[in-house]
Amino acid sequence: MAKPTLYGADYSVYVRIARMALEEKGVGYELVPLDIFAAEGVPAWYLELHPFGRIPAFEHDGFRLFETGAIGRYVDEAFDGPALQPADARGRARMGQIIGMLDAYGYRAMVWDVAVERLEKTQPDEALIANGLRQAETVLQVLTSLKAKGPWLLGGQLTLADLHAAPIIAYFLKVAEGQKLFTHFPDLQGWWGSIAKRTSFSNG
Could you name the CATH architecture of 5-78? Predict the structure, then answer.
């Protein structure tokens, strides 16, 4: 079976999520660097892989995908290795709920409104950061309420929910405000200590 190809950039949270899934499954893959923020813009050829010009995109034996959630599920189901999705319907639903919540409410607030604004702007928008922190607090509260007992978000099994959350929270923890807020969530701190030690997190 041919080695899959992932298109994207190291700086991308969503590329990292896909890479972590591939690493957890033990799948060798090729990462084709693609900077969507380059001065010359998104190359025309890439729009055949991702019509919206975002990253990542994925290709395997002529089968193309975009959207990280779809890529993660395909990687889990198409390759051997430890299962990254619960076997039961309720577990899969909870996993999907956590991933959907992070996409809809966590990513923009935690990564762009807080971390990127603080780290990359010479004159950060403090109101935007404050609003992002309020949203981040709600996301972390809900994530805590949804977390099952055990080392991972769904309990004893590492799933795509963990792989989705880790890169988003990692970016958030690059800034002091994120670190301070995160100390208020001890259940998530234990989870973070576990996920941050994974080889997939280091390599992804």
Answer: 3-Layer(aba) Sandwich (3.40)
